Amino acid sequence: MIDSFMEDAFSARVRTAAMDWLKRRCADGDFVVHRNELLEFHFEGKRFPLVDPNRGIRKPKSMTAALSILTTYTAPGRRAPYEDRPGPDGLLRYKYRGFDPRQSDNVALRIAYERKLPLIWFYGVAEGWYLPCFPVWLVADEPEQLQFAVALDEAQLLMSDTVEARVGQRRYAERLTRQRLHQPVFRAQVLRAYDESCAMCNLRHASLLDAAHILRDSHPEGIPAVSNGLALCKIHHAAYDKNILGIRSDYVVEVRRDILEENDGPMLRHGLQEMNGISLRVPKVRRDRPDVAAIEHRYEEFRRSA
């Protein structure tokens, strides 16, 4: 039997090495990792997969606690096998495997919860592609609902249980979930749909690309769906948000008249003025293309600002 102190030291080295590798892997702005890379991760000279080939919970044989959790990508219009949703406190939930709290994978998660061990959450953004969110912690075991509550940062480990605190904490949890999970997932899905290049100028540097909303985030229908997104470089994203650029329902770009009449340097000329009249490059998959009704709504906003 492995000494518990030795196992804890080994577990800490594994988690540190895996998260350090993910930081380096995602440092260039490409925040998604393919399953094959995760299966071929090496630790201390040996292959040490970060995900399980067939299950969502990874518990290596050399460890008693889980190392990672995984949410499978679900294509639009299909029902997810597990619903990882926020609870009344705003914290996300991760469902048990199956219906038995004593099942071995669920026990491995419970040990991680009891020891307050950091985990990696691999969130599916396309078939075989995952956005790594780390470190995360399990902060509550809810066997009646067959789930664990997940904290996305260390502050949520210290949540108070007073009524006044719960209101502020829920808002904080919702904002953090949006920043650390929903927005990165939206960005990853949009950039993959557009082959990681700007839909206007074809710039292919991932670190300089954004996922722009067509219907704004504040709009009631401004959902984080690929059909409500555009992959744009940072200058064209800013120009689109400020209504310097508009997009017609036939996907042709228009530049505001006063911008066309300006006389400035090469960035204005090549970066903005020459976009006038070009056709937006849209995804090959029809369901990922910009929603025409959303495009028309934003175009009318652009026209009113001209």
From TrEMBL:
Record's keyword terms, sorted: Endonuclease, Hydrolase, Nuclease
GO molecular function: endonuclease activity
Residue intervals of the HNH nuclease domain: 198-247
Protein name: HNH endonuclease
